[in-house]
Amino acid sequence: MIDAARFEALSVSDRDLAPEECAALARSAAELIDTAALDREGEGSFELLWRTDHSEAWLNTWWDPRDTGFHDHGGSCVGVHVLEGHVRNEPLVVGGPRRITEYRAGESFSFPGTGIHRMEHEPGAVTIHVYSPPIRAIGHYELVGGELRRHSGPPSEASPPSPTLSAVLADEP
Ligand SMILES: [Fe+2]
Questions:
Q1: Which among 42, 55, 67, 97 is most buried, taking Cβ atoms within 10 Å?
Q2: What whole-number distance in Å separates Cα of residue 77 and Cα of residue 21?
């Protein structure tokens, strides 16, 4: 299903990409995906489309709900394109109302490498995520005794939900 040569051609670059460029690349990569051929068994999965010196891309399919928790990408920016279903993106906001934006099939967004965010994938969401530079580590955030803690995880590991932090934000007036 994955045509590696076509993704490789798409990903050629001699420099790291800006967030908007990652989103544009995710849109272009989406045109190479035959969603009718996706395996729709199980909870869903993430599949690496490419990894070069300057970017990496993942095809995410979530048949069950998926909450990424608040996390950073270790300095890598991201562009996300939605192929099917819908997702919500939430930057970590302190001292103000939550900023949750929903994106539906055909829409894309980007997020800076310096940011901390959380994504909710509704069941049936199919997305492409392009990161630049390739992710070296993911930082996971959660409140422990009221203090914000970060722990680092490998890029291959799905980020866990951060229920305590999310609950506190939900309590903000
Ligand atoms: Fe992310």
A1: 55
A2: 10
Strand-by-strand arrangement of the 56-62 sheet: 44-51, 56-62, 125-132, 77-84, 108-111
- Residue 71 CA to ligand 1 center (angstroms) comes to 6
Asked if residue 127 is part of any domain, the answer here is: yes
Distance 133 CA to ligand 1 centre (A): 13
What is the model's pLDDT at position 105?
98
Mean pLDDT by 10 residues, the chain (173 residues): 83 96 98 93 92 96 95 97 98 94 98 97 97 96 96 88 92 61
How far apart are alpha carbons 28 and 4 in whole angstroms?
14
In a domain, 173, yes or no: no
How far does residue 72's CA lie from ligand 1's centre (Å)? 6
- pLDDT at residue 172, rounded to an integer: 58
β-pairing, 108-111 with 77-84?
antiparallel
The total number of structural domains in the chain stands at 1
